[in-house]
Amino acid sequence: MIYKVVSSAQEAIADIPDGATLMLGGFGLCGIPENCIAALVARNVTNLTCISNNAGVDDFGIGLMLHKRQVKKMIASYVGENAEFERQLLSGELEVELIPQGTLATRCMAAGYGMPAIFTPAGIGTEIAEGKEIRQFNGKDYLMEMAFEADFAIVKAWKGDTAGNLVYRATSRNFNPVMAMAGKITIAEVEELVEPGELDPDHIHTPGIYVHRIFKGSGYEKRIEQRTVRKSESNEASAS
Length: 240
Known about the structure:
Layout: H1 9-12, E1 21-24, H2 34-43, E2 48-51, H3 62-67, E3 71-76, H4 83-91, E4 95-98, H5 101-113, E5 117-120, E6 134-137, E7 140-146, E8 150-161, E9 166-167, H6 176-182, E10 183-194, E11 213-216, H7 233-239
Parallel strand pairs: 1-2, 1-8, 2-3, 3-4, 8-10, 10-11
Antiparallel strand pairs: 5-7, 6-7, 8-9
């Protein structure tokens, strides 16, 4: 079995050049490859095209790279809650391509499956469809969207083994698995690294064949994006 472990995030991203196209896993603040992003910030890799569901927040995730002007183009679905992103977009410093969330996920999946393109009804009749091919199936219009081409996919999993098999937890499964399939080179950071055979085969979400490098990360913040709590019954009773 192929041993895919590297010693650190620094080693994992050492050959990512300026101008690369990166997929970065995560959904909101869940499942973000924090260690790899920190290593990219420290190396000051620039002129990057980043494909991610969201652009992080000002002091976390891709937001850290935005503050250092490392991102040339952002391809994403949700870009709220990031003042620096907004400033760069409005000033023309940052190129942005907004994509419906389902289309974003399916273009990642298509790349992983080796499909050149997908057809989707999302975006028909909007600015998203401008300049793109439209075909009709069973009397309904569909927009042709191309599969992504990413030089590297950088993902974060809960557990992984030295052969690259990955297990995610909860919301972090939203984009990490499809991106792990789609990169020409896939880098995985994990909270827990085990030996082959220690993961239940039925629980593996990303087979190791898709992963080229893996390492055990550290110092994960596990932030909560929006904390919403219900009033206790005693408080509700007193309020009434």
